[in-house]
Amino acid sequence: MTVLTDSYTAEREAIDAGLRTSVDRLPAAASRIASYHFGWTDEQGHESRASSGKALRPLLTLLAAKAVAGAAPHADSADGAELWRPAVPAAVAVELIHNFSLVHDDIIDRDETRRHRPTVWKVFGSTDAILVGDALHALAFEVLAESGSESVAAGTGLLAGTVRALIEGQLADTRFEERDRVGIAECVAMAEAKTASLMGCATALGALFAGGTEVQVKALRDFGFRLGLAFQHVDDLLGIWGDPEVTGKAVFSDLRNRKKSLPVTAALGSGRPESAELARLYAGAGPLDEAQLVRAAELVETCGGRSASRESAESLTASAAVGLGAGGLLPEAVAELSGLAASTVGRAW
């Protein structure tokens, strides 16, 4: 199933314009590298039509804003296409934070491919990649500060707390690599901090910038958080069984890095006899060869890791959609949020 973000043309154009304006403020060298990362230019700085990603998080921000603004007493629901515009700065800030984390994650994981081409650090070196990631982080808070919204203070505090959670999750993720065993509860907590927190922040910021009530902000933040955890389950499945033509990453990429992802952790803790063989493969020192990678994937599936993540993703998505019934949100936007969630999770099967 295809993720539906491409059907939101006006929203995607607004997000892209905001990102380009922000990146243009950077020093020339940093702007060039950031433009490459976003797919706007090639390695030499020439215009490119490479992928900029799905823009899922900023789109969630705009749809959350629409859900709140369209439910306001004097809102013109016929003009729903414009209800999200006050939240564009928040959406741009969310996408800047997301991409700051991607640039740094690729360095940490030594991933050489993203969106079907070499990663930033692979092209420009680790030092420049670190600095550009830092620049994107700073830009996010500049965009929020200059938005003129009454929700700037609350939004800035929310985004800062989310960045702390991202860092906490990344620290846990890297430390898992040093351990033979990781409990599933620990792995879920890591995913909540590293992935779910930013999606929850994205929807909450949209609600805040649209003037949402405390109940509306909470309902939309919970929706984004649950969807974020479901998204991580799906992403971890794609990290093992995803088609490189779709994911832009090498097949078995997470297994090559011996990442203790959600399906792998579930498999290792399954108690099945085959889990011992998987544990031995993960405990080895040298790189896994192709036969070992295939076997590791088979073992994760045999031990129930694949089915566990799929079932968790479906359950989380369903519960996220149910939660949108609270808060008196615009039904049209609720349907769009639910549809986007279903298409995002459904991309793995």
TrEMBL record:
GO terms for biological process: isoprenoid biosynthetic process. InterPro entries: Isoprenoid_synthase_dom_sf (IPR008949), Polyprenyl_synt (IPR000092), Polyprenyl_synt_CS (IPR033749). GO terms for molecular function: metal ion binding; prenyltransferase activity. PROSITE patterns: POLYPRENYL_SYNTHASE_1. Keywords: Magnesium, Metal-binding, Transferase. Belongs to the FPP/GGPP synthase family. Pfam families: polyprenyl_synt (PF00348). This is Polyprenyl synthetase family protein. The keyword Signal does not apply. It comes from Glycomyces buryatensis. Gene3D superfamilies: Farnesyl Diphosphate Synthase.
